UniProtKB/TrEMBL annotation:
This is SDR family NAD(P)-dependent oxidoreductase. Keywords: Oxidoreductase. The keyword Oxidoreductase applies. Pfam families: adh_short (PF00106). Belongs to the short-chain dehydrogenases/reductases (SDR) family. The keyword Isomerase does not apply. It comes from Pseudomonas khavaziana.
């Protein structure tokens, strides 16, 4: 039985990843969030742990708890993240509070650093691991609605992916990123993105769905991706072609 930890699986893309992985045989899925999402019931093989990934002590407590019960973590999906978007524009650097910058960086980038730091020693011991960092199309081209705190955090995740891929040689661990385009979740609700926008701007003619990103994650943890390492998989319907 393999053990997967997906951060931020209480809603949106994370929930789609959790639901898809839960369909895999021999896979125990653990997810976390700052608080449970009302109305969300996870499949039987999914466990929920409370954790604020922006605090290293909270991450340490979560990983200790998982290791105490399951003895290992084989798959780590760093999905939890926050953003601040507004319709028809973006928060310019002049308007960005220092506190917001730190909150976004602490959650989106430091959170992944904390989980990787805690989980990799266990993966090394088992000589097996699959790490997926959920980045963003905005880190590939500079973004339109996303602001620089968010874009920097997501570009940082690509750097973390590449740096770890170089560092983790001969350990049986692969590290990759997925860079979603605009995915129809609560996170982008404030941006009020419409199907009309997608028909005009996205070659595949629609906003992305959580399942689209979950499919990319499932590929990257499958044996079909055993030779994919240090890569960023763009998953944006052709909106941003890098
Ligand atoms: N929706 C989109 O268009 C895009 C989303 N992404 C990224 O995909 C990931 C998921 O996004 P969505 O599902 O759209 O967002 P969402 O806002 O619907 O869900 C975010 C999840 O992260 C969790 N979370 C937030 N802060 C946390 C913390 N401090 N500790 C633990 N959990 C925390 C929330 O509880 C929730 O489960 C994020 O990293 C986001 O940046 C990337 C590109 C586009
Ligand atoms: C969902 C995130 C915050 C987001 C929002 C807006 C854009 C963009 O207009 O460039 C993105 O690329 C995003 O990832």
């Amino acid at each position: 039985m393999k053990v997967a930890l997906v951060t931020g699986g209480t809603r949106g893309i994370g929930l789609s990843i959790v639901e898809l992985l839960a369909q895999e045989a021999n896979l125990r899925v653990i997810t976390c969030g700052t608080k449970p999402q009302p109305g969300v019931e996870f499949p039987e093989q999914v466990e929920y742990v409370q954790c604020d990934i922006s605090h290293s002590n909270s991450v340490t407590a979560m990983i200790d708890q998982i290791i105490a019960v399951h003895s290992k973590i084989d798959i780590l999906v760093n999905n939890a993240g926050i953003s601040h978007v507004k319709p028809n524009g973006r928060f310019l650097i002049e308007d960005l509070e220092e506190q917001t910058w730190h909150q976004v960086l602490n959650t989106n980038l430091s959170g992944a650093f904390y989980t990787c730091k805690q989980v990799i020693p266990h993966m090394k011991k088992n000589r097996y691991g699959r790490i997926i960092n959920i980045s963003s199309a905005s880190a590939r081209f500079g973004g339109i609605l996303a602001s620089v705190d968010y874009i920097s955090s997501k570009a940082g995740l690509i750097g973390l992916t590449k740096g770890l891929a170089y560092e983790l040689r001969g350990c049986g661990i692969t590290v990759n990123s997925v860079a979603p385009g605009r995915i129809d979740t609560d996170m982008i609700a404030d941006a009020k993105l419409s199907d009309e926008w997608a028909e005009q701007h996205v070659p595949l003619g629609r906003l992305g769905r959580g399942e689209d990103i979950a499919g990319a994650v499932l590929f990257l943890i499958s044996k079909h991706a055993d030779y994919v390492h240090g890569a960023t998989l763009d998953c944006n319907g052709g909106w941003v072609i890098t």
